[in-house]
Amino acid sequence: MGMKGGGGGGGGVLGGGVNNRRIVQRFRQLVTSNGGSGVGSVKVKLLLWCCVFFTLLLFIGRAASSFMGWTQYHRNNISFQTSSSLTPRKGYTLLINTWKREDLLKQSISHYASCARLDSIHIVWSEPNPPSKSLRNFLTHIVQSNSINGREIELKFDINVEDSLNNRFKEIKDLKTDAIFSIDDDVVFPCTSVEFAFTVWQSAPDAMVGFVPRVHWVDQLQEGSVDRYTYGGWWSVWWMGTYSMVLSKAAFFHMKYLDMYTNQMPASIRDYVTKNRNCEDIAMSFLVANATGAPPIWVKAKIFEIGSSGISSIGGHTEKRSECVNKFVAEFGQMPLVSTSVKAVDSRNAWFW
User: Domain Glycosyl transferase: where (predicted)?
Assistant: First the structure.
């Protein structure tokens, strides 16, 4: 019985070989019968190429899966061996400018305190009266309620005697993070957008990375004379497809630029900002561009304005900003701003990318 069973197995193999030979013979007959037909010849060649193609795909797929398994194994080993020596990167400091709008300040702090990588909050306070006890208590409670799972958010008021827009960039000695997220109290961005912008900044920590782009261009090109520049708002950026600044009302930059703005930038520029109560954000853009020779980075995100219209809605705003640009060019001795068309987009929130 054993021998018969074995013979039956052999017959199965032989039968399979006969079947294979019949398939090959049938395939040869098909080729021969179509030999005189141009269309048939093309079909046969196409069939052959398809067979070769799928065979290669099968081979590459198996090789790739084997390689990926090897790579994953070694990646796991590497991460296991080095994880003990890695330390988590620090988060960022929220530097928020405010002026007699406690309700907006409360809304902004309540929102940003829930952002995952926020490390500390510094409120730039330039009002004649110090912050009230009720305001301090409210903000302290909000921050403490978000300090969970060992996460502690520092809250400080940076009190200034002089009322000047330069105060928002005054040097801070005890900062715990390299990254500064400069923000106005009347604009809010989703935490997901803020965290994404922070990762973009980490890839280019010397650059300004922000949500509000602006542009400049040469208005009058004069031979043998000083060029005249014009400042352009959002619609100019949209029309031209380029930008050269991101406003500090919503931007990341390195803490070192606070020191440079306070102690190294020409005092005449700070005096101009104080006198005209405008253009401190343009001055910061000039400072960073002059130090890096590179453009800023615009991060696309939804912006929610929770306050009334600001100075940008006042008549003559563009003309005043253009005057600032030309004044700063004269003080720096050159035009440091660099135009670009690069835009960072979080693909998780985009339909097409």
Answer: 92-346
